[in-house]
Structures are given as structure tokens and as C-alpha cells.
Amino acid sequence: MNPRNATLAASLAVFAAVSSQAAPFPARLVLAQDPSQTVNVQIRWMPADKRYVALFQGGGERPVDVDDVLSLDVQPPKDWKQLVEQARKSPDAAIPGLSRIIDEYKMLKWDAEAGRVLATIQLRKGRAKEALETCRKVISSNADAAWNSPLAPVYWQALLDTGNTSSLPSLLDKGATADSRGIAAQACIRRGDLLLSQGQTQKALTDGYLRVVYLFADQENAQAEALFRAAEAFDKASRPVYAEKMRSLLLSKHPSSSWASKLGGK
Known about the structure:
Blueprint: H1 3-20, E1 25-31, E2 39-46, E3 51-56, E4 60-64, E5 69-74, H2 80-89, H3 91-104, H4 110-124, H5 128-139, H6 152-162, H7 168-175, H8 181-197, H9 201-215, H10 220-236, H11 240-253, H12 258-261
Antiparallel strand pairs: 1-2, 1-5, 2-3, 3-4
């Protein structure tokens, strides 16, 4: 290769490397070295290095290891609200935008949020395998999303629906300790579902549904679902008095919930 061509090839390589870097996004960051201070940054994820690069105000750009991040609150994509509304009204039309966010926001919170919405669409359409693929795409770069993110409950449901349950018990155990009580409550419910599918009705109640009934009263929708499923489990265990108690609690505590409406004439 002559020198001119070599120079051109090198320039193109540099240009490609720069162009392939994800654009930085505005965020609020709390670092382990100073947990009392929240700083405004521009941040991006570097997949090859498996760490962030943050541009600090007045402090230049520098790498940030994942373990050094206590909290990272990235601004939502500019079209996020519109996409969520579109997903509700015209789910198929929202899929390209949600897929784009999954790609652009790796390890920046919104990949898990977009994955949750997209996988939920796929589950509702009966496409559990596609939902599982969507979840795994996010988890491939963000392992914690499998148990400690808004994506996690949808991922667990996709695993149940596809029969891929070998890893589920450990994920649910970790999920029960998630930062969000809502996610922790969902972990207990899905644990109940898993145990019930294995014929362990009593454990489904004690280790799953009843934990949410009595320990997660602040999570209204989760408690309503747990009461509904606990009633079904008590029926299965031939304990109608307790089943009726669960239904009565559901109707008194959450009369307007979708779970109460499922009781029908019972």
C-alpha cells in the first residue's frame, strides 16, 4: 500500500472509531468516593472497556468504573413519553423507537425501561420467545437488569412462559432484595407462580403470594395480584375458607383493581 493510501485508511479507521462511540447523555451522578454529592455530567457507556466515560462540569472527561457508581439518573429520551403513549395505543408502531432506545442507551437506565415496554408488548401478543430475546439483549450488557430493574419482572414472566426456568429460582431470590419494593414484590409473586407450577402449593403460598399480601401492603397492584393468586392456590389446596378470606380482602382493599374484576361471580 502506498503512503497516501495508508494515510487515508488510517484516517478512515480513526473516523469509524469516533463515530461508533455512543453520544453522551445528560445525567445526575453520585460516586462512591463522595456519596453526599450529586454532580451533573454528560455520560456515555463504552462497551469495549465496560465502563462509563463522563464529562464533568469544569473537570474534564474521565472514565468511571461501574463499581464506583452509587446512583445514575439519566435524562429520559426526548421522545420517551410519546413512545410510551404510542405503545399503549398502537403497539406495533412503537417497536422501532423502543428498539432504538435499547441500542442507544446501553447501561444508561433507559435500555431496561424500553426493553420492559417492548417485551410487554410481545408477551401480550403471545410472542414469549421474542420477549425473551428482547430481555436478553438488554441483559447481555447489563447483567443486573435480570433482577434489579424495571425489565426484571417481564423477563421472569418470559422465562416462565417459555419454560426456561432453570435460572429462575436464583434470579427471584435476588429480585426479592431489589432496590425497588415493587420489583421485590413481583419477585415473590413470580416465585409463587413457579412453585405452583411445580406442584408445591403450600410453598407457593408461604414463600410467594402471602409474603406480598402481608409484607407489601404499600404495593397496591402487587398486593391485589397476590390476593387473587393466593385465593386460587388455597382453592387448589382444598382450603376454601382461606380462599374466601383472600377474595374478601381483595374486594375490600382493591375493589377497583383489574384483579378484583377477575373474580367474576365468586
